[in-house]
Amino acid sequence: MKMLLKLLVIAVLVLPLSGITAKAQSTKQQIEDLKRQIEAIQLQNQQQIQQLQQQIELMENARQADQEKIAEIKTKQETVDEDAWYNKFMAQYNKGLIFESSDGNWKMRFRIRGQVRLTVDDPEEGDVATNFAIQRLRLIWDGHAFKPWFLYYLQISPIDSNTLRDLYFTVAYQKEIMPRVGQWKVPYNREELNSSGALQLVERSIVNDQFGLGRDRGAALYGGLGANNNFAYGFQVSNGDGRNGTSVDSNLLYAGRIMLGLGGEDFKYDANGSYPTAKAYDIVPNFAKSPTFAIGVAAAALPGLNCAVKTPDGDVCDRVEELAFPQSNLFQITGDINFKMPFFNVEAEYDGRWLEPETGAQDTAYDQGFRVQAGVFIVPKTWEIAGRFAYIDYDTKSSVVPPGVSTNSSQWAITPGLNYYISRDHRWKVQADYNFVRNEFTLGEPDQDDNIWRLQLQAYF
Fold first, then answer.
1. Residue 400 is assigned to a structural domain of this protein
2. Is residue 16 included in any domain, yes or no?
3. Dihedral pair phi/psi, residue 275, rounded to 5°
4. Residue 368 in contact with residue 350, Cβ under 8 Å?
5. Same domain, residue pair 141 and 198
6. Percent of the chain residues past pLDDT 90, beyond the cut
7. How far apart are CA 131 and CA 98, in angstroms?
8. What is the per-residue pLDDT for 219?
């Protein structure tokens, strides 16, 4: 019995302990399992991290390769761009479209000038004529080539049958002595040398029509002297056959002009001008920043002029035909003055011409003419009132004019005008003028009057 009680007591005590032991062993197993799971998860995560790190490294290597490729392409592109033609030229607009090389050895400026004119011509005899016209169209290229001192100038007129107007080359290595060859305006009278785009009235005067020598082909020497380029000169020998003419004999045209300027502000020398001068003494009749005075004289000669084979620009051959000179020696002189201020300007010119027949009993004919013109700005640089008087006195001695032949004894014109300068210079402008012209004749023939109204728009760009 006692033994049984002991066994019961032992059972009561041992059974709970065995349960606890079993439970403890189960918990330990769970802990071990959890540790193994943690290790498995850590191992899996480590593998994923390593995979991600490998992907990152691959991506960084690819990115580096792309950057190196981009840098290589950019370097190649920059090298190609440096050699590209469009990186060697600069383009801009400055009173014309300008292209210039980066080394300064090439420059070209392109400009267009057009004039549209309405003319009402009411002659003393005949019908009134009303006419709209494209009076002038000029395409102009100028600049330098090869070196900054090798200058060129080209001007054409597409609406004229005689298209080429100017083509000349000037070596301006030293502005004091500048050789020039080609075709351009003869260095003679001031009004002709002034561009048709910078006229103070709609058209040049009757004096210029009679005594002007226009353009010719030849060679010349120009230069500017003095600290402010006050003194300018030009001497030329040319064919004597006018624009685009060809000499068929050895009787050439010789011309020379000298000019002195005082006052003004801009003394930069324009070596590529039709008649090179300092900017202050340019042959434009108006527009000045400060009081400016210029005086010029010129002479021209063409020995043995035979208008049957050679016709200089201007009306000299009409006069030769009128006098029935078969061949004659031509000699001309001119002198001019110009004074301009910001609000006022005045200009005067005298022309004289000797025509000496080489055969026959007729004497030498001496024709002369002059013009005076002036302008006042009623609004600075914008509105200007201008006027001109021009007169020609023809030699009508009986020893000059063939017997029984009626010729012009004199011709004069009065021209008032009004100008509106849109661009505050001569580039864009509207001009209106009235031109009264009287022709007087010998042998008692009646005078002939002509009344001409003109309105013109100019665009120069």
1. yes
2. no
3. -125, 105
4. yes
5. yes
6. 76
7. 36
8. 98
Q: What is the DSSP letter of 309?
A: T
Closest CA to 376 of 338, 430, 417: 417
Please state, in angstroms and rounded to a whole number, the distance separating the CA atoms of residues 164 and 172: 23
Read off the DSSP letter of residue 363. P
311 and 375 share one domain: yes
Residue at 267 is within a domain: yes
Is the pLDDT confidence value at 49 over 90? no
* Beta-bridge mates of residue 122: 451
- The residue whose two tokens read 């004497």 is 363
Q: How many domains does the chain have?
A: 2
Burial class (CB in 10 A: 0-12, 13-18, 19+), 323: buried
pLDDT digits (tens, 9 = 90+) for 66-123: 787 877 777 666 555 666 766 778 899 999 999 999 899 999 999 999 999 999 999 9
In this prediction, residue 23 carries a pLDDT of 61
Is the domain of 267 the same as that of 153?
yes
Kindly state whether residues 208 and 85 are assigned to the same domain: no
Model-level pTM greater than 0.90? no
DSSP structure string for 4-39: HHHHHHHHHHHHHHHHHHHHHHHHHHHHHHHHHHHH
> Which pLDDT score is estimated for 339?
98
- For every residue of 172-192, DSSP letters joined together read -SBTTBEEEEEEEE-S--HHH
Provide the 3-class DSSP secondary structure of residue 69.
helix
Determine the distance from the C-alpha atom of residue 338 to the mean position of all C-alpha atoms in its chain, rounded to a whole number.
25
Among the listed residues 207, 236, 232, 208, the one whose alpha carbon sits nearest the alpha carbon of residue 221: 236
If asked whether residues 190 and 86 sit together in one domain, one would say no
- List the domain range (segments joined by +) for residue 397: 131-406
